[in-house]
């Protein structure tokens, strides 16, 4: 036995495997006892750290056994509604992404025209007087827009009022070299990052309406200095910082006129209009 041990020295990571099951610690040498003790200590430590697989750890949110993770979720109606709302936002962002296949078939201008008109916006081509819009949503999508590439169609104006456009949707503005007029009124998700991208994608813009966009701050207004050809900017805000940023923007861009409308005046005008409608109805 000892001769075999001399021929096969023990590795630091293994225990001598030739001992019988009835053997005890007295049959082992001091070195074998030490290795056995170290292995038992490591085994106990590993069991504590690896008591469950990664899947089990995903199901059980704590060390002690308890209800599955799926049962620990908040299944209230409010939580389900918030989850559906988040999923709807992600879906809209995905559908508004810039699609290369659409541009390959239609070109940049017609692809952008179809994108905005399908989402209840209106566009106008260069040389035309009327805006094109999908009027009847109940009918199948059918407009006067060409369905194949036409080289003489250039988007000159886009009216995207009351349309929720995310950052992914604004990427469809790139390569619109004839775009001069853009209205993004009443967009609750429009923020400073959107304005920064507009300054990058459409530097030749001459008219921009970003009124009723509550997420726009003074930093976003300052980022519009990239629009060196901008002639008119429409915004409504009672924020002093935003108003000062608009005045500074007028100094940076020659010939720019910033139309700052008060939110109180707009609200009062809406109340008057609604009151007149009610009176007429009665």
TrEMBL record:
InterPro entries: LRR_dom_sf. Gene3D superfamilies: Ribonuclease Inhibitor. It comes from the Eukaryota. This is ATP synthase subunit s-like protein. The gene is Atp5sl.
């Amino acid at each position: 036995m000892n001769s075999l041990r001399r021929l096969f020295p023990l590795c630091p990571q293994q225990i001598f495997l030739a001992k019988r099951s009835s053997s005890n610690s007295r049959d082992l040498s001091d070195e074998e006892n030490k290795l056995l003790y170290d292995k038992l200590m490591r085994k106990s430590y590993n069991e504590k750290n690896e008591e469950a697989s990664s899947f089990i750890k995903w199901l059980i949110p704590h060390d002690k056994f308890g209800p599955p993770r799926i049962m620990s979720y908040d299944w209230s109606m409010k939580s389900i509604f918030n989850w559906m709302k988040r999923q709807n936002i992600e879906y809209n962002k995905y559908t508004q992404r810039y699609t290369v296949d659409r541009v390959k078939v239609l070109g940049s201008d017609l692809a952008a025209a179809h994108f905005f008109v399908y989402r209840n916006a209106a566009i106008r081509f260069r040389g035309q007087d009327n805006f094109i819009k999908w009027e009847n949503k109940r009918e199948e999508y059918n407009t006067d827009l060409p369905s194949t590439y036409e080289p003489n169609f250039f988007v000159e104006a886009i009216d995207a009022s009351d349309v929720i456009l995310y950052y992914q949707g604004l990427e469809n503005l790139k390569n619109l070299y004839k775009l001069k007029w853009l209205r993004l009124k009443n967009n609750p998700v429009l923020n400073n990052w959107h304005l920064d991208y507009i300054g990058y994608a459409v530097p030749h813009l001459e008219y921009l309406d970003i009124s009723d966009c509550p997420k726009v701050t003074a930093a976003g207004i300052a980022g519009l200095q990239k629009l060196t050809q901008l002639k008119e900017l429409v915004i409504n805000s009672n924020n002093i910082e935003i108003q000062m940023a608009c005045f500074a923007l007028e100094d940076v861009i020659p010939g720019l006129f910033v139309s700052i409308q008060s939110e109180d005046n707009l609200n009062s005008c809406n109340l008057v209009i609604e009151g007149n409608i009610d009176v007429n109805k009665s």
